[in-house]
Amino acid sequence: MKGTFITLGCFVAGCGLTLLGLIPEFFLENDLSTYALYLLMGLVGLSIGLDTESSKILKSANLGLVLVPVSIGVGSIIGAGVAYLLIGESFREGMAVGAGFGYYSLSSIYISNIYSNTLGVIALMSNISRELLTLLLAPVIVKMAGGMSLVASAGATSMDTTLPVITQYSGKQYVVVSLFSGIALTIAVPFLISLIL
Asked: For the chain, what are the domain ranges?
């Protein structure tokens, strides 16, 4: 949870510094977000490749395990599309935001680079909110909808930042499911956003 608040704080600080005109011209003249995206994609690949537990989980995937991230992905994308449509906006743009699966750093930069900065900011705020709500409402989510619902709520973050909360409130039996689902959704984010947009 601390990491989420640090990320949110950095975002607010960046907005504030820009509004106050305290950002050097170099940052405004050069699109550094593209390079940040490349670095982020490389780091995601490294972290998954270096984690031997992730490799084992991916190799041991069966149909039941595969259906978890597939159903989370379909539900997130269609749900966000419908929600965006209900507020009078584009169904396709809503689906792209939903395809971030809680992975705010990657999805927001990716959407900003290939589509629009406005939708990128919406994706950032939406996916940060998804992670924060999962962390804050974990006991309520599990009590109302069961242990697997917390894995679904976490989305891509179920493999890292929300894993301790999932373990605490859903139980240790959801650790492998959470790791596999988080890895699969993280890998899918850039491909699905590109496909949708």
From this structure: 51-196
